[in-house]
Amino acid sequence: MSEMITTLIKERRSVRKYDPNFKIKEEEILEMLKEATLAPSTSNLQPWEFIVFLNPEERKDLRAIAYNQEQIETASAVIAVLGDKEFYKNIDSVYDSMSEAGYIDASSKEILVGNAKRTYPYAPEEARKNLATFDAGLAAMQLMLIAKDRGYATGPMGGFDKAKFSERFNIPDRYFPIVLITLGKENAPAYQTTRLAIEDKVKFI
After folding, report:
1. pLDDT tens for each residue of 119-169
2. Domains and CATH numbers, the chain
């Protein structure tokens, strides 16, 4: 592992105190999300969506839904990561794009599309939600490391009312909220944490 990625992993902390006057341009947030979504996903079907909260009025409502946590309003942006439980609807567009890019030939595309269409539309909803949650989590973690590399702080937040979130922000039934990620400039050091001994968490067989 390179020294740079090791440093990023070791220095990333979940930040709660942000400089409320610091702004990040929409274009840069898009760049970071584009890089984050290079994360692996189930059959490359990319079962994630993002809502970037910048508007102060919208964030006041979001803060209430997130149990009044102040970083919702002081961070430069809050990124809601959503899962797509109907990600099978991406099958044609994903494999058409791969074919057009020359990454798969016609016969491979036919096999991949056929396998996906026989599998995912008929999988139980809970199974599809689990896959989407897992994949979106990979993208979320990648986003936080990308932000750290650019000098920004982040903090993942699972503590919010997901039902109220979906209602207030008119989330279609196809999607479901997973995590909020605050993004901005650190205004106070995050507290340090420890980890349990890895020898107690690993079994070689």
Report:
1. 999 999 999 999 999 999 999 999 999 999 999 999 999 999 999 999 999
2. 3-84+132-189 (3.40.109.10)
User: Given the DSSP bridges, would you call strands 48-53 and 77-84 parallel, antiparallel or unpaired?
Assistant: antiparallel
Q: Are 46 and 94 in contact (CB under 8 A)?
A: yes
Confidence (pTM): 0.94
Burial class (CB in 10 A: 0-12, 13-18, 19+), 173: exposed
pLDDT tens figures, 48-105: 999 999 999 999 999 999 999 999 999 999 999 999 999 999 999 999 999 999 999 9
Contact (Cβ atoms closer than 8 angstroms) between residue 61 and residue 67: no
- Closest by CA position to 74, among listed 19, 14, 131: 19
CB under 8 Å to 99, separation ≥6 — which residues? 105, 106, 109
What sign results for the dihedral spanned by CA atoms 130, 38, 158, 14? Answer: positive
SS (H, E, C) 14-61: ECCCECCCCCCCHHHHHHHHHHHCCCCCHHHCCCEEEEEECCHHHHHH
Farthest-apart Cα atoms in the chain, separation: 55
